[in-house]
Amino acid sequence: MKNNKGQVTIFIILAILIVSLVALFFVFKDEIIKERIPSEISPIYNTFTSCLENDFYIGVDILESQGGYIYLPEYEYGSEYMPFSSHLNFLGNSIPYWYYISGNNIEREQVPSKEEMQNQLEMFMEERARTCLFDNYYAQGYEILMNEPDASVSIRNNEVFLNLEMDFSVSIGEESYLVKEHEVTINSELGSLYDSALKVYEKEQEELFLEEYALDNLRLYAPVDGVEITCSPKIWKATEIFSELQKAIEANTFALKNTANKKEYFEVEISDIPSEQKIRFLNSANWTYSFEVLPSEESLIIANPVGNQQGLGILGFCYVPYHFVYNIKYPILVQVLSGEEIFQFPLAVVIQRNTPRQISGGEAIETENIELCKDKNTLTTVRVYNSNLRPIESDISYECLGTKCNIGTAEEGIFSGEFPQCMNGYITARAEGYKEESVIYSTIKEGSVTIYLTKLYNKDIQLKIDGQNYNGEAVIYFISDDFSKIISYPEQKNVELGEGTYEIQVYIYKNSSLELGATTQKQCVDVPRSSIGGILGLTKEECFDIEVPAQIISNALSGGGKANYTFSESELKNSNIINLYAESLPSPDSLEKLQTNYILFESKPLNIDVK
Fold first, then answer.
1. What are phi and psi of 395, to 5 degrees?
2. pLDDT by residue (tens digit) across 363-411?
3. Prior bond to 391 cis, omega within 30?
4. Which residues belong to CATH 2.60.40.1120 in the chain?
5. What is the largest CA-CA distance in the chain?
6. Contact of 102 with 406, CB cutoff 8 Å
7. Nearest to 389 by CA among 338, 451, 330
8. What is the 3-state secondary structure (H, E, C) of 501-553?
9. Considering the entire predicted model, what is its pTM?
10. How confident is the model over 139-174, as pLDDT tens digits?
11. Is the domain defined by 367-455 classed in CATH 3.50.50.60?
12. What is the rounded CA–CA span in Å between residue 277 and residue 338?
């Protein structure tokens, strides 16, 4: 028994020694190997492994900065309708969108998997493995050979591992050294940052929380729905609204921050994000975006009053209701930060007709409309000239069946290229400083078309009332069959016009102290009788009181007029200012007199003098 116990003890000691030796080997493996490398060769291999490690860091950094891509997917251009391309340019760095809507209105996703990221990093390392410079060693007589590399990459939460199989041989004189396998491990949170980025993206796709913030910005910084008690029109400048909205979007987007338990407005609740990581949301006015509002007149948004028209005196007051519809599209760059590492990806925020885009995937418009722009197979030549037959460089588009396709640019006045086939579509030419022109054209077979553009001239406007210069509030309309302009005077004192006949309308508004007291009006309506009488269609009269609150009309129609005028191109070319002579109207002291002013306005003349 004692012998057996002694033998067991010896085996246990041997096992412990073996395990210890194996452990020591792996702990001191690099030192053991280095000792086997001749001193003359060791610096060369160290240079090589340093190159590998440096390139490995570069590859990881590119993946993080380009949304998980080293090799970018094919670039796709945007359009007038949908401004997003497939990549966001951020500080000169092209980053593929994880979600965007293409120029022909198709939803796209470009979210790389972790396996795809590993594959791209493997390809990158195979390309870079043999680019290390050994010029100093070559000069010393060393011969260095490297065979075809085969890389394998593993992305983990806190590190990235590279195994590179490649014969690396160094020789000088009689000495030589060969290593077949090379390993590099770097500390990086690429895997963890990617996982967090994916959680942010999935939350956006499931909840559209960025679109909800966009709607809040829209309703806070732009007129959407409302009613104001006034008898003069409400006028907003679209450019000013969009400028303020863009500033708000940029600032409020940056204010967003991630949290595990939402308590404040700007907190975005995203669960299972490591506490040391921070989510940042960025937007910039320098990035591509699109703001559109309907209805609008050129650069103005106008809401006209109700209650001052003839026959509406029963209302007893004026009010301006408005409802504007917005289409807003802009990018947001999502950054996941931990220490000095940043993983980032962009996505598109889309508001259509005051509502967020749909959560479910799919096409936003019918397939037939999409295919119209996609399939271009009819050679068509477009020539664009001005009135003096000089060629004009212009942008060419084609619209048919409710779909508008960007075609190309008429350089030196000529474009020759493929158009989609369609019957009775519109070819449109647009050039800066000229009135946009469209012609009906069927692209069923090859052919050509010529478009003549009318030059626009910027003219100063001086409004006069009863012969005296007037610099108060007014709205001025220039209306022709195919071209109209509207200006809000005196903020706008110039207008771009082309030759043609216009109906010019001037509405002058002055400060008013017109007070309308609170009134109670009796309103009667016929309602069905109860029981049998109701079944037989019998009705009875029921009356009720309508209370109208008191109001002060601060602006009232106090002058103006309208007239037709034909501008020739020579007159526009050789003149500087358009003088508009309007007449005043009586200052109204009641709603009835205010309504009378609108009736008198219809017969008021307007004189035009172009100098």
1. -90, 135
2. 433 333 345 777 788 999 999 999 889 999 999 999 887 778 889 999 9
3. no
4. 367-455
5. 132
6. no
7. 451
8. EEEEEEEEEEEEEEEECCEEEEEEEEEECCHHHHHCCCEEEEEEEEEECCEEE
9. 0.68
10. 888 889 999 999 999 998 899 999 999 999 888 877
11. no
12. 5
